[in-house]
Specification:
globular; about 450 residues; alpha/beta; 4-stranded mixed β-sheet; Pyrimidine Nucleoside Phosphorylase, Chain A, domain 2; Aldehyde Oxidoreductase, domain 3; 17 helices; Transferase, Pyrimidine Nucleoside Phosphorylase, Chain A, domain 3; 4-stranded antiparallel β-sheet
Length: about 450
């Protein structure tokens, strides 16, 4: 490839003006950025041009392939179990991967789950897991396949050498307002997942105020794009469109979401989390070759009820350096020094519990990052006490806020000010658990 006649400025300008770039130019950009020969400020400008003007299917294919091959690709051919992963496009209170992975592993499937950190107003699985004392989200590649064979599950972040272009671009997007873009989201997710040498992939494509895709139509486009990328690479993909108009479960934060996840593994937890976790587990078993939905559902239920999934979680935490006592007793998780009650300003029925505004408040509180260098406070967060359909009296709690910094509390409360709508008509709100699954797309 010879790009001596081009500059990054010219390529940014071309994409800014809505013109397509040839595959070699896109591969060059990924190569040069990974090698530190394109600075962050130029890549930021190029990403914003993609947000504004999108990518053609040819461009997206070249961009994704270049990211996929920007570093190492895993070889998990020695793992004899079917290898199925799941990925969420990001939500608020979305901790489903944490109980899901050990449940599916307890059913005899290998789950090489490679997750990310918080992105924008959404939480990150790695940040949640790292609230477990000692838990390491880094595994030496030589040990990765062994752990999958032994436990059936590994929950890790990207290594320095696996899809390094995405690891850097992912952090840059979070800090530059370039997250909500179908090409950027789909290429980020699929480059990582295709690098895992999977036999199948389940995608949870979020829809609603707390998602990057606000409408079913936008989410369908994203899902179809990712399913298409999987098909072109020979990987079966199932995408479920799920509702993210309000937070999932009650807990929003990091340590408190781990505690809620453990409740699910013990057979409890909020109804919406339980329903989606079981449905996703069934879908992953179907991708692994199970032909009967009822049989898959029975296997998942048995994994939870027997305690097998919980024991896998204990073993996973211990294997990755964490303190298993935290799983046995979630009171040992980090806790904040202070609590504030956010009270309902009037009586009535909750008609809106806005996931986006609650997610933004979480970032302000310290549960997420405003810049890519920010530290996350694992102890802070919210317990949502009133969701859509709940009847509430004036002065009763909408949320309990766990905080460590008074100034961050005030900033978070400002973001929460308009998160709830309360109507005097008790019949005004929809049933709170209706419409969790809004659509599905399969290879």
């Amino acid at each position: 490839m010879n790009f001596t006649g081009f500059t990054m400025v010219e390529l940014i300008t071309t994409k800014r003006d809505g013109d397509a770039l040839p595959p070699d130019a896109l591969r060059w950009i990924i190569s040069e950025y990974t090698a530190d020969r394109i600075p962050d400020y130029q890549m930021s400008a190029f990403l914003m041009a993609i947000v504004f003007n999108g990518m053609s299917s040819t461009e997206l294919g070249a961009w994704t392939d270049a990211m996929l091959h920007s570093g190492d690709v895993l070889d998990l051919s020695a793992v004899t179990k079917p290898k199925i992963d799941k990925h969420s496009t990001g939500g608020v209170g979305d901790k489903i991967s944490i109980p899901l992975a050990p449940i599916v592993a307890a059913c005899g499937i290998a789950v090489p789950m490679m997750s990310g950190r918080g992105l924008g107003h959404t939480g990150g699985t790695l940040d949640k897991l790292e609230s477990i004392k000692g838990f390491s989200t880094t595994i030496d590649p030589s040990d990765f396949a062994d752990q999958l064979d032994d436990l059936g599950v590994a929950m890790v972040g990207q290594s320095e050498t696996l899809v390094p272009a995405d690891r850097r671009i992912y952090a840059l997007r979070d800090a530059t307002g370039t997250v909500p873009s179908v090409p950027l989201i789909s290429s980020s997710i699929m480059s990582k997942k295709l690098a895992e040498d999977l036999d199948g992939l389940l995608l949870d494509v979020k829809v609603g105020s707390g998602a990057f895709m606000k409408t079913v139509e936008e989410a369908t486009t994203l899902a179809e794009t990712m399913v298409g990328i999987g098909e072109r690479h020979g990987t079966p993909v199932t995408a479920l469109l799920t509702n993210m108009s309000q937070p999932l479960g009650r807990a929003v934060g990091n340590a408190n979401e781990i505690a809620e996840s453990i409740d699910v593994l013990r057979g409890g937890g909020p109804e919406d989390i339980r329903r989606l976790t079981v449905r996703f587990a069934v879908e992953m078993l179907l991708l692994a070759g199970e032909r009967d939905v009822d049989t898959a559902n029975a296997r998942v239920t048995e994994a939870i009820d027997s305690g097998a999934a919980f024991e896998v979680m204990v073993a996973l935490v211990q294997r990755q350096g964490g303190d298993p006592a935290v799983i046995e007793n979630t009171d040992l998780l980090p806790s904040a020094a202070h609590e504030h009650v956010l009270a309902a300003p009037r009586s009535g029925v909750v008609t809106r519990c806005d996931a986006y505004e609650i997610g933004v408040a979480g970032v302000r509180l310290g549960a997420g990052r405003a810049t890519k260098k920010d530290d996350v406070d694992p102890a802070v967060g919210f317990l949502i006490e009133a969701k859509v359909g709940d009847v509430i009296e004036k002065g009763e709690p909408l949320a309990l806020i766990a905080y460590n910094d008074e100034s961050k509390l005030h900033s978070a409360i400002e973001a929460l000010a308009g998160a709830w709508d309360i109507a005097s008509d008790v019949g005004a709100a929809p049933a709170p658990t209706e419409g969790l699954i809004l659509g599905e797309i399969r290879s």
